[in-house]
Automatic annotation (TrEMBL):
Pfam family, one: MFS_1
Name this protein carries in UniProt: Major facilitator superfamily (MFS) profile domain-containing protein
TM region(s), chain numbering: 55-78, 90-111, 117-136, 179-200, 212-232, 244-263, 269-293, 305-327, 333-352
Source species taxonomy: Eukaryota, Metazoa, Ecdysozoa, Arthropoda, Crustacea
PROSITE patterns: MFS (PS50850)
């Protein structure tokens, strides 16, 4: 329950993280998130045997802090890396895969010293978020309020109220039909996405026996997920590659492999399927940020990513719970895994509808979010940024 609350709050409050990123800035939001997550983890070390307290310290404080740190970490990449955004996102998100591989080996040794020591060591990991936040220097200037907002602010109480909310929430991204389709299709596809990750270990033990080394499959998923994030990030940077199409392929393969789990009856088959699921999971994860920038531009990316992650919190939390309820009633994972494979496949086909929506010219409702000073100024800004930060970016990209 505590872990579910932490994961749910991390995703659900990403919309708040997006708003704060626009209002307070990337560095302040990330630092505040790191401080909150570190505090929650440290306090948890003193109340590790009290679930009620852990619901607040770990479930909420750590979860909210992680949310405030995660969303800006994706947004800041678009400020520095435009030509290699896919590859850089792959490298950055591959960090979680490294710890997915390492933690099953590290945690048993930490737990031998007790939960309190384990929480305190994890506190040290969280504290690094505050150090990382200090180097998050945004390069894109804040947008001035559009004329409509200024006029509404002078038109009485109702106008001031509308102007207030328009100043906080970026409504322009929801006029972008391509983003709306993408933002609705992704959460719909994720209803079955998390099911194998939560239930795979138990399922393998049900099929092969309690002595099966099912934890190895988690390592397999983490290893190929990190590899997939880098490989697909590199592919996504090719000018002729459709990033959304890559994400569709990943969803279709994840759904198909989830269904194939029901036919596996040997550890070799489970390993092959796990390697494939991790590889295409890496594709999906590494392209979230780049696609958001493609659809709404730099000025709308923070809230576009935040809103998407917030909507993803519902299927990611409910999907495994529904699969668990089905297993409790049927005492079999056949139906849960077959049902879990359907949403990603359906979501992959729904994303084809984006091709039916033409990108309107800039400045009309439904177009990509406005950029500062028009296209010429953006190009000049990008050119000056490349000149100023070219050596660093070149080294990073290499």
């Amino acid at each position: 329950m505590v872990m579910s609350l932490a994961i749910g709050s991390t995703f659900l409050l990403s919309v708040l993280a997006g708003v704060l990123t626009d209002r307070l800035g990337i560095r302040i939001t990330t630092f505040a998130g790191g401080a909150l997550a570190t505090s929650g983890m440290f306090i948890s070390s003193f109340f590790y045997n009290q679930v009620e307290v852990l619901m607040v310290t770990y479930g909420l404080m750590f979860g909210i802090g992680s949310s405030l740190a995660y969303t800006p970490s994706l947004v800041v990449l678009g400020h520095y890396f435009q030509r290699r955004m896919g590859l850089i996102n792959g490298f950055v998100t591959a960090g979680s895969s490294i710890f997915t591989i390492a933690m099953p080996f590290i945690l048993p040794h930490l737990l031998d010293h007790g939960l309190q020591i384990t929480f305190q060591v994890l506190t040290g990991f969280c504290a690094f978020l505050m150090v990382a936040a200090l180097v998050f220097k945004p390069l894109m200037p804040h947008l001035p309020p559009p004329k409509r907002e200024l006029e509404e602010a002078r038109s009485g109480c109702a106008g001031r109220c509308r102007g207030f909310w328009r100043g906080i929430i970026n409504f322009e991204i929801w006029r972008n039909k391509r983003y709306v389709i993408w933002a609705l299709a992704i959460p719909s596809a994720l209803f079955g996405y998390f099911v194998p990750y939560v239930h795979l270990v138990k399922y393998v033990r049900d099929v092969l026996g309690k002595d099966a080394n099912s934890q190895m499959l988690v390592v397999c998923i983490g290893a190929t997920s990190g590899l997939g994030r880098i490989i697909f990030g590199l592919i996504a940077d090719r000018p002729w590659v459709n990033r959304i199409l890559l994400q569709q392929v990943s969803f279709f393969c994840i759904g198909g492999l989830t269904m194939l789990l029901t036919a596996a009856n040997h550890m070799v088959f489970f390993i092959i399927i796990s390697l494939g699921m991790g590889f295409f999971d890496g594709c999906f994860i590494s392209l979230l940020g780049p696609i958001a920038f493609d659809l709404v531009g730099h000025s709308g990316a923070s809230q576009a990513i935040g809103c998407l992650l917030a909507m993803c919190s519902i299927p990611l939390t409910c999907g495994p719970a529904i699969a668990g309820a089905l297993y409790d009633n049927m005492h079999s994972y056949l139906v849960p895994f077959l049902c879990a494979g359907l949403p990603p496949i359906i979501g992959a086909f729904v994303l084809f509808s984006i091709r039916l929506v033409k990108t309107p010219p800039k400045g009309v409702p439904g177009s990509p979010v406005r950029e500062v000073g028009g296209e010429k100024q953006n190009n000049a800004t990008a050119t000056s940024t490349d000149d100023k930060h070219g050596p660093e970016e070149t080294q990073s990209e290499v």
